[in-house]
Write a structure and sequence with these properties.
Blueprint (H helix, E strand, L loop, with lengths): L1 H6 L2 H7 L7 H16 L6 H13 L7 H35 L6 H14 L5 H20 L3 H18 L4 H17 L3 H18 L1 H6 L2 H10 L6 H18 L7 H12 L4 H17 L2 H14 L5 H17 L8 H12 L4 H16 L4 H5 L1 H9 L1 H14 L8 H16 L3 H17 L10 H12 L4 H18 L5 H11 L6 H17 L1 H16 L4 H17 L7 H10 L6 H18 L4 H11 L5 H17 L14 H14 L5 H14 L3 H20 L4 H18 L1 H17 L3 H17 L2 H15 L8 H18 L2 H20 L4 H20 L5 H8 L13 H14 L7 H15 L10 H16 L6 H18 L2 H14 L5 H11 L1
Helix pairs in contact: 3-5, 4-5, 5-6, 5-7, 6-8, 7-8, 7-10, 8-10, 9-10, 10-13, 12-13, 13-15, 14-15, 14-16, 14-17, 15-17, 16-17, 17-19, 18-19, 18-23, 19-21, 21-22, 21-23, 22-24, 23-24, 23-25, 24-26, 25-26, 26-28, 27-28, 28-30, 29-30, 30-32, 31-32, 31-33, 32-34, 33-34, 33-35, 34-36, 35-36, ...
């Protein structure tokens, strides 16, 4: 730029201006030169300053192209401002030459010189300012003589700038000049004279200060002479209005205290019948408003707004015009009042008077004209139409706004027009308008750069959004909630506390409809999600608390909030580990609505994060698939199926992508086990899912068998009956359907579990499984595995726990029944019971004695439970009772086990020969000398005696006579053998345990004992 300006000389600029008939392209080439000079004044060589200034005044100002003329004036003005300190004296000499010799130059050049004197005046020292006094009268003469209105305004303002600086140099003369000029205002006949005089008066007042202004009572005289009376001269109205305008221009903020007193005159004049008066009033209004401070604007705007409510159309018209001027002339000052202004103008738009309606449209256009957002400015016409006729243009306008791609931020004037559109849309009856308006709110909040710009519109936006938030249409609620979230984000957290409180209060209400609860929950989720991780983390505690409440409506409300969090909060996956268990926990709630909402919550999480957080979602769902509540199991199976589908059926792939192999096996195992749920609804649901997922069940089951049995085993150990039933049914199903392909491997796993079993639950579970597998196995399979089953069950025959002992006995009962072979049964009894009992009897420790009792209890349980098997017969045969001979006497072991079946044999002992052999064997052992003396022992004798006593004590009452006779015989035999103790022990046990009434023979028994 320095090089260009140095190369630029006066001749080049003159040459570009010789031709007066330039085309558009050439004009832009010429206009570039003064524009370059305007931007680079400080680099212009000293030798060129005077020449350029002279050129711009004499040649540039009279150019035939007005744009070039204006550009030259601006270049000269920039030159004076930039170099005024250095060349003020020389510049003043040049400019005074034009003014003093005005007749030698064109009028435009003289006017431009006067304008530049005004610019230069602030750079002059006192000596130079005194010199201006000599040219002052000439300037006033030219001012009042001027015929060119456009140029005169520049001159007027320039003189007005000079006068305050010069007034104290010619005190008396200035006062006389003021009087002369004021008289012109009171009596002048031409507007240009009035305007020149007004600027002169205003400049003098500025120079002498407020005291001079008050002493002269300027406003009082203007009020009396220009605005008082029914019929005032229009020229006087114009004079007063022009003076108001110039006083504001000259005095600036100092004129503010008087604005309220003159505002009524201006408003009345704006609606005057004369065009000239209206024009002056609008100019005065614009100038005054442009100079007002924010405080003064606060005092003035309510007066304008109040004027919009008057009944007379002229009053409304005046206020609307004033507001329009104010919006155009002072956009920054009225930003805070735009909401109230536009709201008032919207009401005026519906006025029946055409001029009022047109003025309102014009005022809104004035607001629109200061919009800085290009995207909104382009749509200004349709926005104004929509505000004027919402029924016809609103939807079109909303569509255009929503389709617009915004690059620039939305400024306050744009907000003042867009927010009313949103308000209208949200209050419309049709759903389309509501939804579009809600979306537009969100866009507005996102695009507003300064949150404070939104605050004035809260009284409009919040009620409308709240209304839409409770709408019955879900789409409208969703749009309103998103708008609320974005609005909260735009306003900031500090300004959103009231919104949060309102939403929480609604969620605590018991009378809230389902749609209203949903809207409040969605709104809360959007706000909570709008302010980042820290705020979300803190609010999680507030949301989780009520989900555990005893009040159903609170659980329902805040679980509904959870339903919207996954979609509204981008980082929700980080909080999944905390919130997902709570969501799944709700599946077992007593309230049907809470269960439905909880199911929906988890479904949303699955759809959002099924691939991102697969394992995190799987773990709690797997746990809930075996919940005590069957409703939870149904819901969990549905959720797991949805999750599997979301993971693209990952569980049936050889190498899953989203989960590990262990998780895959757990999912498949859990699905298979649920097929055997005792609740039909769960069973049907799981069966359908299994079929849809698995094509080769045997292959899959072999792959997952270890995990499957582990889960089955856990269920069998559960304290809940339904889970136990499910686990056992699953094992039965495996055995029945897949047989030896699965069973042998299953038995290996259970045997390994048995080795590691540390508590009662585990042992009980294993015995239950073995018992069920025994019952479910086919005959062929049972033949193959019966020895393994017996080996697993046999140790539990002597177990202390009755349930475990009975379960192991049932394994034997099932085998006995299923095999249907007496010889096999007898062999098993001999191998498992007699041999075990014999081992225990020969072991003398206390634990063995306890185990003997348990084993005998097991034998009794088998004989009593499976009476149809006639186990007692097989034990008698095993002990060779029917063919008993003293050459092969009974052993202690046989006596002990025979005692276990004595209660079953006793009822038939005197009726059937087969069973009578039991009695005969006992009496022979007790009353005759043994043929094998070496086996005789006190222990054996006592065991046989107790077996005999058990038999006699259990003989039915109707056989009492026979029993008594046998007791007498036994007494006689004991006398012969000198074994009195045997008789005494028999009588003791018999009298304690027999159901028969032995009263008649009690004396006899007692005597024999004695």
């Amino acid at each position: 730029e320095i090089v260009v300006v140095k190369q630029l000389n006066l001749e080049a600029l003159k040459n570009t201006g010789d031709d007066n008939n330039f085309e558009g392209g050439k004009r832009f080439n010429r206009i570039a030169l003064p524009q370059i000079i305007s931007k680079t004044c400080k680099f212009i060589p000293t030798s060129s300053v005077e020449k350029l200034l002279d050129f711009f005044i004499t040649t540039g100002s009279v150019d035939s192209d007005p744009k070039i003329s204006q550009a030259c004036l601006e270049a000269a003005d920039a030159l004076v401002r930039s170099r005024g300190n250095d060349f003020s004296g020389k510049m003043l000499t040049i400019l005074e030459g034009f003014i003093e010799n005005a007749e030698d130059y064109k009028e435009e050049s003289v006017h431009h010189a006067i304008v530049l004197v005004g610019t230069l005046s602030s750079f002059l020292d006192k000596g130079c300012q005194k010199k201006l006094v000599h040219t002052f009268e000439k300037m006033l003469t030219l001012l009042l003589r001027s015929k060119d209105k456009g140029a005169s305004e520049l001159v007027n303002k320039s003189i007005c700038k000079c006068i305050p600086l010069l007034a104290h140099y010619f005190d008396e003369k200035a006062k006389h000049t003021f009087n002369d000029m004021f008289n012109i205002l009171r009596k002048g006949k031409h507007e240009h004279e009035l305007r020149g005089a007004a600027y002169a008066c205003s400049g003098i007042i500025k120079g002498f200060g407020m005291r001079f202004f008050n002493e002269r009572d300027v406003l009082g005289i203007v009020q009396r002479e220009c605005f008082t009376g029914k019929k005032t001269d229009p020229l006087r109205n114009q004079a007063g209005l022009i003076l108001y305008e110039t006083l504001s221009y000259s005095m600036g903020k100092s004129f503010e205290p008087f604005v309220k007193t003159i505002l009524e005159n201006i408003l009345n004049s704006i609606s005057d019948a004369k065009e000239a008066v209206r024009s002056c009033a609008n100019a005065a209004n614009g100038q005054i408003v442009a100079n007002l401070s924010n405080y003064a604007i606060k005092q003035v705007v309510p007066m304008f707004l109040e004027g919009l409510t008057v009944d007379h159309w002229r009053g409304k018209f005046a206020s609307v015009e004033a507001i329009g001027n104010m919006a155009y002339c002072a956009p920054k000052q009225i930003l805070g009042f735009l909401p109230d202004i536009v709201k008032a103008l919207r009401e005026v738009l519906n006025d029946t008077h055409e001029r009022v309606h047109e003025a309102a449209l014009k005022a809104i256009s004035s607001i629109g004209s200061v919009i800085k957002c290009p995207e909104v400015a382009e749509l200004l016409d349709i926005i104004i139409k929509a505000l004027g006729n919402s029924n016809l243009y609103l939807n079109e306008c909303l569509d255009m706004l929503l389709q617009t791609s915004f690059v620039h931020a939305i400024d306050a004037p744009s907000l003042s027009l867009l927010v009313p559109l949103v308000d209208i849309g949200l209050m419309m009856h049709d759903n389309s308008s509501k939804q579009k308006a809600s979306q537009l709110v969100g866009n507005i909040c996102s695009l507003t750069q300064d949150p404070e710009d939104l605050l004035p519109y809260m009284k409009i936006l919040i009620p409308a959004i709240k209304n839409s938030l409770f709408d019955s249409i879900p789409e409208i609620r969703a749009s309103a909630a998103k708008a609320l979230g974005k609005l909260s984000k735009g306003l900031g957290l500090a300004n959103s506390i009231e919104l949060l409180d309102w939403l929480n209060n609604n969620l605590h209400r018991t009378d809230l409809a389902a749609s209203e609860r949903s809207g409040a929950a969605q709104g809360l989720s959007e706000i909570v999600s709008a302010h980042g991780d820290n705020f979300f983390s803190n609010q999680c505690k507030t949301i989780i608390g009520p989900t555990q409440s005893k009040e159903v409506h609170l659980r329902e409300s805040y679980r509904t909030v959870m339903a919207y969090l996954p979609t509204s909060f981008g980082n929700f996956v980080n909080y999944l580990v905390v919130l997902l268990p709570i969501m799944i926990e709700g599946l077992g709630d007593v309230s049907d609505e809470v269960r439905k909402i909880s199911l929906r919550n988890v479904k949303i999480c699955i759809s959002q994060y099924g691939k991102k957080a697969s394992e995190m979602l799987c773990k709690p769902i797997l746990v809930m698939m075996f919940d005590k509540d069957h409703r939870v199991r149904v819901s969990s199976s549905i959720l797991m199926y949805q999750l599997v589908k979301e993971m693209e059926n990952d569980v049936i792939k050889s190498q899953p992508k989203y989960i590990n192999m262990s998780m895959k096996h757990q999912i498949l195992s859990s699905m298979f086990i649920l097929k055997f749920d005792p609740v039909e609804k769960v069973h049907l649901q799981a069966s359908q899912i299994w079929k849809s997922l698995v094509d080769a069940p045997v292959h899959i089951l072999r792959m997952i068998i270890r995990t499957l049995i582990e889960i089955v085993f856990k269920n069998i150990q559960s304290s809940h009956n339904e889970l136990q039933v499910m686990g056992l049914a699953c094992m039965r199903g495996l055995v029945e359907k897949f047989g030896e392909r699965i069973v042998n491997e299953s038995l290996d796993i259970f045997e390994s579990y048995l080795e590691k079993a540390t508590d009662l639950h585990q042992t009980t579970g294993i015995t239950k499984v073995i018992q069920n597998m025994t019952a479910a196995a086919s005959y062929r399979l049972l033949i193959q595995i019966k020895h393994r089953l017996i080996n697993i069950a046999m140790p539990f025959l002597v177990y202390d726990n009755q349930e475990i002992r009975e379960l192991s006995c049932r394994v034997f009962i099932t085998i006995f029944k299923r095999m249907g072979d007496s010889q096999v049964t007898q062999n098993i009894l001999g191998n498992c019971f007699l041999e075990k009992l014999n081992t225990l009897i020969h072991s003398k420790d206390k634990e063995s004695q306890k185990q003997i009792t348990n084993l005998i209890a097991g034998v009794k349980f088998i004989t009593e439970t499976a009476f149809e098997l006639k186990i007692e017969d097989k034990i008698m045969n095993l002990c060779e009772v029917p063919s008993h001979k003293l050459t092969k006497p009974l052993t202690t072991t046989q006596a002990v086990i025979l005692r276990a079946i004595a209660p079953k044999v006793a009822p038939l002992v005197f009726n059937k020969k087969y069973y009578n052999t039991f009695y005969m064997a006992m009496t022979a052992e007790l009353t005759q000398e043994p043929k094998v003396p070496e086996i005789q022992s006190e222990e054996r004798t006592q065991a046989i005696l107790m077996c005999f006593a058990e038999l006699m004590a259990n003989v039915p009452t109707n056989e009492y006579v026979m029993t008594n006779e046998e007791i007498i015989c036994f007494h006689d035999a004991c006398i012969k053998r000198n074994t009195y103790g045997l008789y005494i022990d028999l009588i003791k046990y018999y009298c304690e345990n027999t159901p028969s009434n032995y009263e008649k023979h009690a004396k006899f028994y007692a005597m024999n004992v004695l």
